[in-house]
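Exam revision sheet. Question 4 asks you to relate a sequence to its structure. Input first:
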Amino acid sequence: MNLSEHFTLMELCKSQTAERLGIDNTPSDQAIANLKSMCENILEPIRAHYGVPFSPSSAFRCKELNQAIGGSLRSSHLLGLAVDIEIPLASVSNPDLARWVQKNLVFDQCILECWTGEPGSGWVHIGDNIDDPRGQVLTYTRGKGYMNGLPA
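Answer key, structure tokens:
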């Protein structure tokens, strides 16, 4: 099922952990509607800007899958309102991607996660609260937790 021109429901629900553990990661109708909105408002604009195909590393997670990977009990992934991505271009670092999202998209949260300063480290988490987007920008570092903003 296509959710937008370049993104399918299958790729936004795919999980190696779910497959390995036999977890049914099928979203509700509301979560599918949320994923469709996220594709149109977040993923498609990113793809259009960078001009390269990419697939999210994580989007929808059912409760069982979220628990299996140690996700937050309040994770937006549970509702189909969050996506974790990287752009497969050596010239696009995850901080650069996060900065582009911050300047160009309406979002709830944009979190540069687990970036160590090394090329290719970490990923960008983008939350899409349709009704009340906060525009919150954070950096998460293992051992240090969350800080406001992005690294210079």
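Marking note for examiners. The chain has a mean pLDDT of 94.
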